[in-house]
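Input structure tokens:
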């Protein structure tokens, strides 16, 4: 997002958005790690990609917190896969995240409205 190495704006951090996206993916359906990484791409921009290590660390932390559960499943072909499932507590956390994101979107919309207003005024005065 920043155009120089001295940029002061923190920008958007994919890491912070990972947890609610994983919770939402698991609310839609239980999945294994690789499938979740593929599904996460839906929430990211073209130049962003989920870090596999971060995804698995986040899943482990969410399991420790009781938001997801997992079990090893062996299919007819291929290695066993750990399937993650959203728990009741995870659904509650997802609802809280959705409210947080909704409020953040409103803040960002207000910011952009004011910025665009300033830009339009600058065109008339400049």
């Amino acid at each position: 997002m920043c155009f120089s190495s001295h940029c002061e704006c923190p920008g958007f951090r994919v890491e912070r958005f990972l947890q609610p996206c994983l919770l939402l993916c698991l609310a839609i359906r239980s999945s294994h790690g690789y499938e979740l990484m593929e599904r996460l791409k839906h929430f990211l921009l073209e130049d962003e990609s989920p870090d596999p290590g971060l995804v698995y660390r986040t899943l482990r932390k969410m399991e420790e917190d009781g938001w997801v559960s997992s079990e090893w499943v062996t299919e007819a072909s291929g290695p066993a896969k750990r399937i993650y499932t959203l728990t009741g507590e995870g659904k509650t956390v997802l609802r809280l995240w959705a409210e947080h994101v909704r409020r953040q979107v409103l803040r960002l919309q207000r910011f952009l409205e004011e910025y665009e207003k300033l830009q339009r005024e600058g065109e008339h005065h400049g």
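Residues 88-125 form the longest helix (38 residues). The chain has four helices and three strands.
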